[in-house]
From TrEMBL:
Entry coiled-coil feature ranges: none
Species assigned in the record: Aspergillus awamori
Chain spans, region Disordered: 465-486, 518-551, 613-695
Chain intervals with Polar residues compositional bias: 523-536
Protein name as catalogued: Protein transport protein sec1
Signal peptide segment: none
Compositional bias ranges of the Low complexity kind: 637-649
GO biological process, one term: vesicle-mediated transport
Length: 695
């Protein structure tokens, strides 16, 4: 069974809430950032089932609760430390059980250590190591699209060190969650021409230092494990500039390329549900791991998706005949069955509706804008070979022909031009201007072309060029057998796939992917296959000793892609995990669609101040209301006695009429007084209700 980082983080958060503050009832206090981490992994119901009375946000106004303990799960930020210090000053809760999502800066930790109020109220402090956002079982993001300009914009050099240190802490947090103290390798280009070529080496060094410090202070890290030692591979976007420009025709890649997907805290798509019926609505549908249709289809080729989606939806309807719209024979029993399964049916029906609509819209765009022809030429640019794996010819004329076609939209024209320039290893400046004009591209598109050199591509070259052509990272080899049309449109193997295959075989070039530390044979994945049994024999759990070879714990490979990763690269990690018997995870700052990649490359020549990079915004501060004195409770107002009103005197006989003369509370005639008769009646009714409740 492969490991899911979603489940790992979910268990980590729930176990922290379950055990960090004992079994007593408590308030969970979070901040804006930590709340997003928690909401991404667990539901509020899951939290409230763990002796949590309610969830409060530390930046918000909150009522004092001095009789209740508080479990704080907070981001290690200076203004959040200010917030919790304000809580201590007001003794807002009885005791504080403090959990940081990652390491707290030593200066901020010293503030808490020096404070007598903090020492008096803090019951325990721990680190959860959960400062990342799992998106899929093998995909982790940091939700930080601003990482790209910080790493590659020429005006952001002063921000890089702090940013790399922050990335290193997040990556170590991920390694700690997985229980991995990995061997670290990083990408070092052969003949770099861009300033950011040293990015991976610096980041790898920061990560190594953070990991070493973590292991020094956490004596139980790494925990005993029967797995071979993991590998952390540090690469950046410049390692493969072709991947974010190609049209891919697997479902997930195509959807994010061609459709207006909203990609924020949630991934959603706006589509029509119940079309043609009285309850038709336009709805934002979430796309996530709980959508079984999405999980099953996302890595399939669109051709296969279209066929299978229709078949599966027909099976789904056949399996739920009670929900057929023409079902007029419903009786009481079938209606009860329908109500019992209605929620699941609606969820499944909406999921199929969503994916049928998305698949149809993708294919409509594909046909309308001639993506088959576009992709065929793209693959020639990417590989340098035609469909028969022979040297491609007449590519310039094929490019011009596509640029002349009105059906080809502006984004496709720009992507074709960029791929052509990369394929040629740069072209004359005059030719670039002519092609931009011929393609009728906007002036800002020329900025995108020029900015590719900041990522290591050669864009312009002189008429007499003495420089040797840029060597590809890998030599492309033709397949051994015949290929079909589907394979011909995906001839380009992503560099990440080739890197992982070489890594698993133990043949990855150490001059291009060096280690941060001198390594031994046991650090190389390809050499570890023979060591797995020894690892299993020495492991403590007895259940591991009886495993068959195919069930041995898999080695983990963690890839960090600085500057954003593509959905094709995410799919590659699943494929390598399946074919090579490894657990491969992809972590990145953010996910790149082709459109986002083009926008971010274009921004590399924009004035840095216009980018609104969070690191250059004013530092957040604790809200002022946290430091306000609580208003004392208003004194109770004396209750005024009502002024007696002049009432008509009652005749004594009227009072005598209701007076009891007996000793047992009965009237003279033996009957109970009216009030007592009423009490008996109410008690009898309550007793009957109680009996009815327990029937």
């Amino acid at each position: 069974m492969s490991t899911s980082i979603l489940n790992i983080q979910r268990d980590l958060i729930l176990n922290t809430i379950r055990y960090a503050a004992g079994n007593e009832w408590k308030v969970l206090v979070v901040d804006e950032t930590s709340r997003k981490l928690i909401d991404n992994a667990v539901s509020e119901d899951d939290i409230l089932n763990l002796n949590v009375t309610n969830v409060e946000q530390i930046e918000h106004r909150r009522s004092p609760n001095p009789t209740m303990d508080a479990l704080y799960i907070l981001s290690p930020l200076p203004h959040i430390v200010d917030c919790i210090m304000a809580d201590f000053e007001r003794k807002r809760y009885r005791k504080a059980w403090l959990v940081w999502t990652s390491f707290l800066d030593p200066e901020q930790r010293a503030r808490l250590d020096r404070s007598q109020l903090a020492r008096d109220q803090i019951a325990n402090v721990q680190i959860m190591n959960a400062d990342y956002f799992p998106r899929e079982s093998r995909l982790i993001t940091f939700r930080d699209p601003w990482s790209f300009p910080v790493l590659f914009h020429p005006g952001c050099n002063h921000l890089i060190r702090a940013h790399l240190e922050g990335l290193a802490q997040k990556i170590v947090s991920l390694c700690a969650s997985l229980g991995e103290y990995p061997v670290i390798r990083y990408y070092r280009p052969r003949a770099p021409t861009h300033e950011a070529s040293v990015l991976c080496s610096h980041l790898a060094r920061f990560i190594q230092n953070e990991l070493d410090q973590f292991a020094q202070f956490q004596r139980d890290f790494p925990p005993p494990s029967p797995r071979p030692r993991g590998v952390l591979l540090i690469v950046d976007r410049s390692m493969d500039l072709i991947a974010p420009l190609l049209h891919e025709f697997t479902y997930q890649s195509m959807v994010h390329d061609l459709l207006p997907i909203s990609d924020g805290d949630k991934v959603t798509y706006k589509t029509v549900i119940n079309e043609g019926s009285h309850n038709e609505e336009l709805k934002d549908m979430e796309i996530n791991e709980e959508d079984n249709v999405w999980v099953e289809y996302r890595h399939m080729h669109m051709k296969d998706v279209l066929g299978k989606l229709g078949e599966d939806f027909a099976k789904f309807r056949a399996a739920n005949p009670q929900f057929a719209e023409d079902n007029n024979k419903a009786n009481v029993n079938t209606i009860k069955d329908m109500l019992a399964g209605l929620t699941e049916f609606q969820k499944g029906r909406d999921a199929y509706t969503l994916h049928l609509n998305m698949a149809q819209e993708c294919m409509s765009y594909f046909q309308k804008h001639k993506l088959l022809e576009v992709s065929s030429v793209e693959q020639c640019f990417a590989t340098g070979m035609d469909e028969n794996y022979k040297k491609a010819k007449n590519l310039a004329s094929q490019l011009v022909q596509l640029l002349d076609d009105d059906a080809i939209k502006q984004p496709e024209r720009l992507r074709l031009l960029l791929l052509y320039i990369i394929y040629r290893g740069g072209i004359l400046a005059g030719d670039i201007r002519k092609l931009l004009a011929h393609a009728q591209l906007a002036p800002q598109d020329g900025e995108i072309v020029a900015n590719l050199d900041l990522l290591g591509a050669r864009v312009e070259k002189p008429l007499k060029d003495d420089k040797p052509p840029v060597q590809p990272l890998f030599t492309r080899k033709p397949p051994s057998g015949p290929i079909d049309e589907e394979e011909s449109l995906s001839r380009y193997d992503l560099n990440l796939k080739l890197i992982l295959e070489e890594l698993v075989r133990g043949t990855l070039d150490p001059s291009v992917f060096p280690f941060t530390r001198p390594h031994t044979d046991t650090d190389t994945p390809g050499q570890q296959e023979g060591l797995s049994q020894a690892s299993l024999r020495s492991a403590k759990p007895t259940w591991a000793r009886t495993r068959s070879t195919g069930e041995q714990p898999k080695q983990r490979i963690i890839v960090f892609m600085a500057g954003g990763a593509t959905y094709g690269e995410a799919r590659t990690c699943y494929e390598i995990s399946q074919t090579c018997g490894k657990d491969v995870f992809l972590a990145t700052s953010h996910m790149l669609s082709p459109g986002l990649f083009l926008r971010q490359v274009g921004d590399l020549s924009v004035d840095r101040r216009r980018l609104d990079i969070p690191a250059e915004r004013p530092k957040p501060t604790a809200p002022a209301h946290l430091f306000e004195r609580e208003a004392p409770p208003a004194p109770a107002q004396p209750v005024k006695k009502p002024v007696p009103v002049n009432l008509k005197p009652m005749a004594p006989t009227s009072a005598l009429a209701t007076m009891s003369l007996g000793t047992n509370g009965k009237a003279a005639n033996g009957a109970a007084p009216p009030e007592k008769e009423k009490d008996k009646k109410e008690k009898k009714e309550k007793k009957e209700k109680k009996h009815r409740f327990f029937r």
